[in-house]
Design a protein that fits this description.
With 189 residues, this protein is mainly alpha-helical. The protein has a domain at 3-133. It is 58% helix and 0% strand. The protein has eight helices and no strands. The protein has helices at residues 3-14, 21-32, 40-47, 56-60, 68-81, 85-106, 140-160, 170-184. It is globular. The chain starts with a helix and ends in a 5-residue tail after the last helix.
Length: 189
């Protein structure tokens, strides 16, 4: 799945509880950050074609951030930083797992091989989560899921006045919600 899909998923999950802005950001981050293990693609692009070419993306993506240990670390970090500690930590833990499930469902690479999740890494590298029906990253189910999540996010922004835009700027988030309300009317409270 794309980072955008994971972000929208995390935002909607964060809105299942009454959380402050910072706590919603923590849950959303927990749903996106597992893909930080894919940043090796940058080194691969820089070294491509050279003598010291790396293969970090293929080697490490779906490893460091895609396991139970990372989920526990994300929950611990959320607990330490949140106002509503237990709720935010539980949602951060759930957000990592939703990310993993999204990847098991729809993250097959262009070569056709399913991308497994090594859930017990680094303790057990032999067991992996896979699904024979895993669809490709550019398959229609991923686009449909992203569109549905976007619709849900826009609805929440209209209804609550908060959107993922608030991750970057509270002022821009307010302007975004106000624009939605001008277009579609004020929600009944």
């Amino acid at each position: 799945m794309s980072p955008i899909t994971h972000c929208l998923t995390g935002w909607i999950l964060a809105n299942t509880a009454r959380l402050r802005r910072r706590d919603r950001i923590l849950v959303t981050a927990a749903c996106v950050l597992p893909d930080a293990d894919g940043l090796g693609v940058l080194a691969d692009l820089v070294t491509r074609g050279g003598r010291g070419a790396t293969e970090w993306f293929g080697t490490y993506h779906h490893t460091f951030g895609h396991n139970a240990l990372f989920a526990l670390a994300a929950a611990a970090a959320a607990f330490a930083l949140a106002a509503r500690r237990r709720t935010t930590a539980a949602l951060a833990f759930a957000a990592v797992h939703v990310h993993l499930l999204e990847d098991v469902a729809g993250a097959r690479g262009p070569d056709g091989d399913p991308w497994p999740i090594r859930y017990l890494w680094p303790f057990d590298v032999s067991r992996m989560w896979t699904w024979d029906g895993q669809w490709g990253l550019n398959a229609w189910p991923n686009f449909l899921l992203t569109a549905l999540l976007l619709a849900g996010t826009l609805y929440l922004a209209w209804r609550t006045g908060d959107s993922p835009v608030g991750i970057v700027s509270g002022r821009a988030d307010g302007a975004f919600a106000a624009a939605l309300r001008r277009r579609f009317g004020n929600p009944r409270t």
